[in-house]
Each structure stands twice: as C-alpha cells, then as structure tokens.
C-alpha cells in the first residue's frame, strides 16, 4: 500500500510539472530547473519504492525473512542473518574503540562506570567487581540510550559518534526483525514493532553491549591459566568461509554436564537465556559460543559464518508465543584449543526488549493471529494461560533479576 502510494505520488508530481510547463511559456532556465526538480523527486520516490523505509520495509523482504524465522526459531531457537546491512568494517571499528577504552587507566575508566539504574556505560570485568553476581570473564560497554552523551572526545576520539551510529543501525535491524517476526506469527506486520517503539529512547530496557573477552593464556611452569593483557589486533577468522563442522572435527567442546569443560569449569559466560524479545549477536570469530537446541540437554557449538548476525529468541518472546518460539539457552566457553584461546573474543549484542508498559500477554498474540476458525475452537491450553497473571515487560525483567540474585 505504502509502495503504491509512493509510485502514484511520483507519477502525479511528474504529470503536474509537465502540465504546468506546457500551459505557461517559461524561460529556458526555469524549464531546466523544473526538469531537474522533477528528476530528483522521481529518483527519491523510486528509491523509496525499491528500498522501503525504516517503518515500511519492502513487504516481500519482510515476508521472506518471516518465513525463514518461522522455520528456524521453533526448531533451532536461533538463526543466522546475512545481508543485514551492518558492515563488518563498522563492527571492527567498534571493537577497536572498545579495546582502546579498556586500555585506559582504571581511574579514567571509573568515570564511565554505568550507574545501576540506567546500566548505560562501562561494566567493569565482573571478576574485579566484588559485587558481581556472576563471575564472567569479560568487559562490557552498554548503550541504553541514544540521547545522553557521556564519553568525551579527549581520551576516546570518535568513540561516542561511532557507537551511537552502530546502536542506531542495530535498532533499525531489530525493527525490521520485529516486523518479520509478526508476519511469521500471522500477526499484523506492525503488531510487535509498535510495542517496541521506545528502544534506546527511554522506558524500554533494550541495550547494545560491546563485549570483550580477554585471551586466556597458560603458565606452563605453574600449570595454570591466566588472563591476557588487553590489546587490540584484528582477529581474522581461522577461515573466512562458513564453518559448520561437527565439534569432534575442529573444536573440542564440553560434555553433557553443566559447566564441565576440560579447562575445569572455565566459562567466559555461564549458561543462561536472555530475558527480552530476542538478541542480535555479532561475533569477531567463533570464540566459544555454545547453545542447547530446544528439547536438548547437550551443549553444542554453533559454527561460524563470518559477517553474519546470530539471532536468538528471549524469554519474553517465548512467554508471548506460548513457547512456540522457545528462549535459547546459550553460554560462552573458553575454547580448549590454544590457538583459539589466545585470541580472546569480541562480540556485540543488541538485546531487544518491549516497551516497559507492554503487557506480555499470550492471549494477545493468540487472538490477533488466529483465523476465525481457530477462535471458535476451544483451546484448553489457551484457557489455562488466560487465567495466569499477566505482567508487563518491566515487571517481568525485575522479577527475573530478583530470581537471579536470590539464587546466587
Ligand atoms: O558474547 C557473547 O557471545 C554472548 C553474550 C551473551 O550471551 C549475553 O551477554 O547475554
Ligand atoms: Fe545471552
């Protein structure tokens, strides 16, 4: 509909100008000027027609991605996005900025430590943070809003501008995915998008996280592992072609039991599900990401497709869809193989959350996505869910954090 409007409007403008030119006997310069304006307007509208816009991406592309997600998310709990529009170069520059940041002295870094309320800013290595609930061996810089500016040009020229631009790109990509997800659930295309419209602008818990996992080195004399120094080098992938070999061939991984690796419980990030709608994850190389596929208890490597963005469903999407799109358990292990372990790992995660006041009500999705036929059929499961208390997105996340801190 929107595309049709663009096309018709552009044809209408052309027609108007031509008529105007014929009726009035204009001088030559004005005539040329009119032609130029006409061409520019036509070009802009044709571009909009071909590419779509942030709020109105081209429907056929939204539908195609929706179909793929409909297949991948219930079965695997994740998918790999390609041709997503975020250039690898932009990711590399972001990691470079993060490493420069991490190399600053502790005194300087302290100015940027995130305040607990907003979570915006530097999240120091939780190992060094006595109050950390998890012992995760990583450094993070969070962007929770595009509005505030707290990184100064002086120690970090270009940091803020670059990271904000990247956060904006991820927000656009998330908006597109929300529309595809809605289509995949037989909902109106804008159904989910409208419930996430405050991403990175307040009253919404979405955030972009720049993550750095330091290299883990081995002290042969003491026979123990220690954390390497922070120093950026571009981590070229072992292979820049897709690598989906089974782990036995290339990358020895853990056994079935939780947390047991040959390095003796050494994890960069312990097994968890994400809390929001979904997460978009860019990685500099494979670096240890493992998942438990829906219905399986076995940790397995994901494999690596350079330049792709990994997407996994979060807990709110699984509540909303009555587990049709289950939340994916995942973790990051310290690779056993030395050549992988000494490289460290960089990743960028965009956690997409609904606006805080959004009620995460499964009956909403059920009613909106049902055909008339479905609605007349009684559904036992549906009736059961409708009796359960429904929380909004903010309440759900607070309950989650409470649970985590009580159990630790
Ligand atoms: O860094 C990664 O690859 C995963 C990070 C992650 O799962 C998380 O922060 O929730
Ligand atoms: Fe995660």
List keywords for this structure.
408 residues; alpha+beta; four-stranded antiparallel beta sheet; globular; binds 2-oxoglutaric acid; binds fe (ii) ion
Structure description:
This protein is an alpha+beta fold. It contains 13 helices and 13 strands. The chain has a 7-stranded antiparallel sheet. Helix 1 (2-23) packs antiparallel against helix 2 (28-51). The longest helix is centred in the middle third of the chain and has 26 residues, at 159-184. Mean pLDDT is 78; it is low at 127-134, 246-265 and 371-386. The protein binds 2-oxoglutaric acid and fe (ii) ion (FE2). 2-oxoglutaric acid is lined by residues 211, 269, 274, 281, 283, 289, 330, 332, 347, 349. 2-oxoglutaric acid (AKG) binds next to strand 8, strand 12 and strand 13.
* Average pLDDT for all residues: 78
Number of strands: 13
Q: Provide the spatial order of strands within the biggest beta sheet.
A: 1-11-8-13-4-3-2
Bound heterogens, unique? 2-oxoglutaric acid, fe (ii) ion
Helical residues, percent: 25-40%
N-to-C CA distance? 52 Å
The low-confidence parts are 127-134, 246-265, 371-386
Rounded radius of gyration (Å)? 25 Å
Continuous helix count: 13
Quote the beta fraction. Answer: 15-25%
Shape: globular
